[in-house]
Specification:
Elements lengths: L1 H18 L11 H26 L2 E7 L6 E8 L1 H17 L4 H17 L4 H26 L7 H27 L1 H8 L9 H9 L3 H29 L8
Antiparallel strand pairs: 1-2
Helix pairs in contact: 1-2, 1-6, 2-5, 2-6, 3-4, 5-6, 5-8, 5-9, 6-7, 6-9, 8-9
Length: 249
């Protein structure tokens, strides 16, 4: 896992240089290209996160890449209460039908609880907005959990890729949040994304909650740190408790 973290650090190094205002010679082939690929993966998971949580709360949402301004978009129609209750019914059915399988029951229970607790309050809109970056953290933590617990069915190469991609996604997000927290120029650029026609996620959340973009970025950075540490802590606990986690092949 140390090698995975080192590879991820090399890939993310150009982003760190840009955020610090010091573009290094590393910002080229192959690291710059690898960072671009990692960024595209992050964008994909980001927009899928918006879409999934949009559907959860009754908004039919379509994630896509934005070829005009870069990044991505998640377009949704108006809210449908029929869709909201259909999703709730599907989650309840999954919870009952697969209650013996924690890998299904736990996410279904968590999603249903979120839906019923926040679905009737304005807070659900804030959650949908945050879960672009939030879903990046969840996916990266999933990759790291597979790597730490050696759950990759195709051996050491897949395990290494899981670790490098997981660390890389969290590192890239961490650099992005750090840049917004420390640099007013980067915040100004962030505020003008999509040609100034669309508020960024952190800007929207800050406006809705009456706080600053720096505070929202700091919270997201803390979430990324938890996503990095938690899989390692889970691995350490399995070693301490003598719990064997195996992948049935």
């Amino acid at each position: 896992m140390g090698a995975c973290a080192a590879i991820a650090a090399l890939i993310v190094a150009p982003a760190w240089g840009r955020a610090a205002g010091e573009p290094w010679a590393l910002d080229g082939f192959p690291l710059g290209w690898l960072l671009t690929g990692l960024g595209l993966a992050g964008t994909m998971f980001h927009e899928v996160g918006h879409a999934l949580f949009g559907w959860l709360f009754g908004y039919a949402t379509l994630p896509m890449f934005d070829f005009a301004y870069g990044g991505g978009l998640a377009l949704h129609a108006g809210r449908s209460w029929a869709l909201f209750w259909a999703v709730a019914a599907a989650l309840a059915w999954a919870l009952v039908r697969f209650r013996a399988y924690a890998v299904v029951a736990v996410p279904a229970a968590a999603a249903l609880a979120l839906q019923l607790l926040l679905g009737f309050t304005p807070a659900h809109e804030t959650l949908i907005t945050f879960m672009g970056h939030g879903f990046e953290v969840l996916v990266a933590a999933f990759f790291l959990t597979r790597a730490w617990l050696d759950l990759a069915p195709r051996g050491w190469l897949e395990r290494g890729l899981n670790g490098a991609i997981g660390f890389g996604m969290l590192g890239q997000l961490g650099v992005f949040c750090w840049g917004l927290m420390r640099d007013g120029v980067q915040r100004a650029v962030y505020a003008q994304q999509k040609g100034g026609l669309h508020l960024g996620d952190f800007s929207r959340i800050a406006a809705e909650m009456g706080t600053s973009v720096e505070a929202v970025a700091g919270f997201c950075l803390a979430c990324a740190a938890v996503g990095c540490v938690l899989p390692a802590a889970l691995w350490a606990w399995t070693r301490w408790a003598g719990v064997e986690v195996r992948l049935e092949r």
